Amino acid sequence: MKIALGSKNENKRLAVLDLFSHLRLFYDTELFSFDVQSGVSEQPLTREHLYAGAKNRAKSAYESIADCRYGIGIES
What we know:
Elements: E1 2-5, H1 10-21, E2 30-33, H2 47-62, E3 68-72
Parallel strand pairs: 1-2, 1-3
């Protein structure tokens, strides 16, 4: 199963890998990381900006790879 992460940040990548390592459904997962834009300021100040940034990253990452099952965006 292909999963796309909308970040090249190593800490975010490791967090996603750790999460999926505990879920049997995702045992056979390939994680691909992409450097995508969040569409919000570099330091989001509101919850709405955090959510929008994460959603934008997930969508952009998902669209970056063929046969992708899930897109993940993490904004902090």
